[in-house]
Design brief:
Layout lengths: L4 E5 L5 H4 L15 H8 L3 H6 L9 H4 L5 E8 L2 E6 L4 E7 L14 E6 L16 E6 L4 E4 L3 E3 L4 E10 L5 E10 L8 E10 L14
Parallel strand pairs: 4-5
Antiparallel strand pairs: 1-2, 1-11, 2-3, 3-4, 5-6, 6-9, 7-8, 9-10, 10-11
């Protein structure tokens, strides 16, 4: 499974949450605790902007749901790098080991990757890789949606990446995302996001984080 290259998100569901900033109070589908809803109701984008927190919706727990493009490359034999044009963010998926004990929280946290069914530490043998599993911790608190639905520093993110090629040659990347946050959620928050591969980076367009 080759994840490298440029991919564009194909938004066929949750349009009002992904392409737009939903209205305050529109939290459908998120298993929120009552106190979490109160925090979301207090959301103030102007206050976040004044505090330099424009990137709160671009943390790892929500980043792949942003409309736009991603660029996947191998930084080295044991590190897969994912850049996003939305918010100009960068993630690293580390194969082997575990997060350093002193790892500081950040928007993208620390991600440990493994190939399901192979145990291969890094570039999996061609034709033998299952889904790519990525577990991310050490997250800085952010938003699951741009209208202020929060996740906490205790949130853990698990993702599964699969590539499928259709008979017409189109390649698709399917990402299943599971967010677990005992502080703010009553259950797992699960989403599925689709990307289609592009021939090159001619449509790549970096944009800053925005809350509006």
């Amino acid at each position: 499974m080759d994840l490298t290259g440029y991919w564009v998100s194909i938004v066929t569901e949750d349009w009002r949450y992904r392409m737009l900033v939903a209205k305050k109070g529109d939290y459908s589908g998120v298993p929120m605790k009552p106190e979490t809803r109160k925090l979301a109701e207090a959301w103030d984008p102007a206050k976040d902007e004044a505090a330099g927190e424009q990137c709160k919706p671009y943390g790892a727990a929500a980043l792949m749901r942003m409309p736009g493009r991603i660029h996947v490359t191998w930084e080295n034999d044991s590190t897969l790098r994912v850049d996003t044009d939305a918010g100009t963010q960068m993630r690293r998926f580390h194969f082997g080991g575990s997060p350093p004990a002193a790892e500081a929280p950040s928007w993208q946290g620390y991600s440990v990757a493994s190939w399901e069914g192979t145990g291969a530490p890094g570039r999996a043998p061609q034709g033998k890789a299952g889904a790519l599993k990525v577990v991310t911790t050490h997250l800085r608190p952010g938003y699951l949606r741009r209208n202020g639905v929060p996740y906490s520093a205790t949130a853990a993110l698990t993702e599964y990446y699969n590539v499928v090629q259709e008979s017409n040659g189109d390649q698709w990347l399917f990402i299943t995302t599971v967010v677990e946050d005992p502080a703010y959620l009553t259950d797992k928050f699960i989403t599925s996001t689709n990307f289609r591969k592009e021939a090159d980076g001619s449509k790549w367009h970096l944009s800053p984080c925005t809350l509006r």
